[in-house]
Design goal:
about 600 residues; alpha/beta; Rossmann fold; 5 domains; 8-stranded parallel beta sheet; 24 helices; P-loop_NTPase
Length: about 600
């Protein structure tokens, strides 16, 4: 594809450039890089033609629908946004209405389910010749289609439109051959002004503690914290005890999960912000956030437990930073890293997929040729569970090019989180940020800490609590930060008295030896406490005053004597004859009458 560089001046919108003045150029992919340059604004309001604009998700639609200008009037009065509650009949009425230039905004799902069917049922317009199609944030087709297959549905229609264009926030060039066949051009927006933003990259072993540090540094500021994990959001809010000052904005499924876990201020639409605002990936792209202040932005990625929290510095981070039209005070990306991560470079990934597809198609052939039920029963699960199966183009035995592009991108993003050096380098090469790197390592790691906010198994909870107790007791390296999130050993004793008792009774090494198994620990604690109770100094004095060296008491008498003192000193157990060996060195024999006796040889020193 031909490449075109388009210079853009400060405060200039795309619609104000000669190339875009009459409309978004057809058969182009626009790599915009910057946010807020009016990439969809012209098509939604200015250009004198009918347009269908497909955006990645519903919040974008609601943002356009509710946008107001400086006079409080609707910014886009002529658009029809198609989301929940809007029917095919509403679309038909809009098409038949008196608005001269029709502007329809929808998600990929709504296009297939409502917009396209509405055109079939009317005769005012020809969908593919009368309308310009603009796919906004088309990179989402690559980055999210592995779990949102509906994103791929409009692609075949896209190439049927006479006039069409895509907008991308990444530098990824789709590998679909139809772009070449239809003569598409790539337009790269080249700002002619300073636009790079400072970002502080924080390498840590405790995400929650690092977030706490940033909050304490900017205690008077408003925060927008981007975390694509309901569990991690819950951990941060509950462990930092900021529930009353926090709001979470996420998809419906995450909302239900967070509500069930006890958080109340959870919403699916943006608005009425709090001091601490948590946003999932639903709000990373194409949603404008208008504030009267410049907030502090925190990105949190936990690659050790939640790989889906990874952000691509080339796209996700850029898009998030660009959401705030009034600018931001500072940006901080807090992350742990995984030195065991492996990934495929592009050529390796393509070879990997090619070889996998070869085996996959072999299984398909075997399955289709199979005549026995047992053969099919063996092959079908293997086919459906293979890593290739989700990448197959619907109705074929070939790979979907967009899913392949997404696989390659995922592998590339994985490489950034192998270590902080690669991470820093990726941010630097994004050409949008000026990154600096700092490290914050704590006595307690986030695996241990986050478990306190989740419903962990008993063994996992015992393990993590005892690790925290042990870490707080061990003299720390001067370069290691002390864990100070209200979870000191004193507070842990109050919250987890039983586990603290395990730790204080047996010690960490013994708990580890017992594999943090509650049943084994209870048995060992009972045994040790029973033993310790029998060495109560007052009890020892009483028992060792019973007999003198050389005496030969009957075993029946010994048991009776011991029970008297066990009762006196509140030991909740019955005495055994063998207990005498805890206090005296003895030898067992019989007297002339054949009765069992114990000869007292020595009074033992009790430590």
């Amino acid at each position: 594809m031909e490449r075109i560089n388009l210079p853009l001046l400060a405060n200039q919108k795309l619609s104000e450039t000669p190339m875009f003045k009459e409309g978004t150029p057809s058969n182009t992919i626009i790599f915009k890089k910057l946010c807020g340059i009016g990439a969809t604004h012209g098509e939604a309001k200015i250009y004198k033609r009918h347009s269908i604009i497909i955006v990645p998700n519903t919040p974008v639609l609601k943002g356009k629908q509710e946008a107001r200008d400086e006079n409080g009037l609707r910014k886009y009065p002529n658009i029809l946004t198609v989301y929940e509650g809007v029917t095919k009949e509403d679309i038909s009425a809009y098409l038949a209405g008196d608005i001269k230039y029709k502007k329809i905004l929808c998600t990929p799902e709504a296009y297939m389910a409502k917009v396209k069917p509405a055109f079939v049922e009317q005769d005012h317009f020809d969908l593919f010749t009368d309308f310009f199609m603009l796919l906004d944030e088309c990179d989402k087709i690559i980055t999210e289609s592995d779990y949102r297959r509906a994103l791929l549905k409009p692609i075949d229609d896209f190439f049927l439109f006479k006039n069409k264009a895509m907008i991308s926030a990444t530098a990824i060039v789709p590998s679909d051959k139809r772009f070449q066949e239809q003569g598409f051009k790539r337009i790269y927006i080249k700002p002619k002004f300073r636009f790079k933003q400072q970002v502080v990259l924080v390498e840590t072993n405790n995400i929650v503690a690092a977030v706490q540090d940033e909050i304490e540094k900017h205690s008077t500021d408003c925060f927008f914290i981007f975390v694509n994990s309901a569990d991690l959001i819950h951990a941060i809010i509950t462990l930092l005890q900021i529930e009353q000052d926090s709001k979470v904005f996420c998809a419906e499924t995450s909302k239900t999960k967070l509500k069930d876990s006890g958080l109340d201020n959870v919403y699916t639409n943006l608005g009425a912000y709090a001091k601490y605002n948590f946003l999932t990936s639903r709000f990373y792209n194409a949603v404008d956030i208008d504030l009267s202040v410049q907030p502090v932005l925190l990105f949190a990625t936990d690659v050790l437990r939640n790989s889906y929290t990874m952000l691509d510095p080339y796209s996700d981070s850029v898009q998030i930073a660009g959401r705030f039209r009034c600018g931001v005070k500072s940006i901080h990306h807090i992350s742990n890293f995984n030195s065991t991560l492996t990934w495929h470079k592009e050529k390796e990934a393509l070879s990997f997929l090619k070889n996998g597809l070869k085996v996959y198609n072999g299984w398909i052939d075997q399955y289709q040729a199979a005549t026995e039920e047992g053969e099919k029963a063996m092959l079908l699960p293997a086919i459906k569970s293979s890593f290739i199966h989700p990448l197959i183009k619907d109705g074929s035995n070939s790979l979907n090019t967009y899913l392949v592009d997404g696989f390659i991108l995922d592998e590339q993003v994985k490489s950034y989180y192998h270590d902080s050096k690669r991470f820093h380098h990726a941010y630097k090469l994004s050409n949008y940020f000026r990154p600096s790197l700092e490290s914050k390592f704590y006595t307690v790691c986030d695996r241990q800490l986050i478990s306190l906010s989740l419903k962990a198994t008993s063994s996992a909870l015992i393990k993590n609590i005892s690790e925290i107790l042990d870490a707080n007791n061990i003299p720390r390296n001067p370069e290691t930060l002390q864990f100070n999130l209200g979870r000191s050993n004193d507070s842990i004793k109050k919250l987890y008295p039983a586990i603290t008792d395990y730790y204080e009774t047996l010690g960490f090494s013994k708990l580890q030896e017992l594999e943090f198994n509650k049943s084994k620990i209870d048995t060992e604690c009972k045994r040790k406490k029973s033993l310790e109770s029998r060495f109560n100094p007052a009890l020892v004095i009483d028992i060792q005053a019973l007999y003198k060296v050389g005496e030969k008491p009957l075993e029946s008498r010994i048991k009776l004597d011991l029970n008297i003192f066990y009762i006196k000193h509140n030991l909740k157990r019955s005495a055994k004859v063998s207990d005498i060996k805890l206090y005296y060195a003895t030898s067992r024999s019989s007297n002339a009458s054949g009765e069992k006796i114990m000869k007292i040889i020595k009074i033992l020193q009790i430590p």
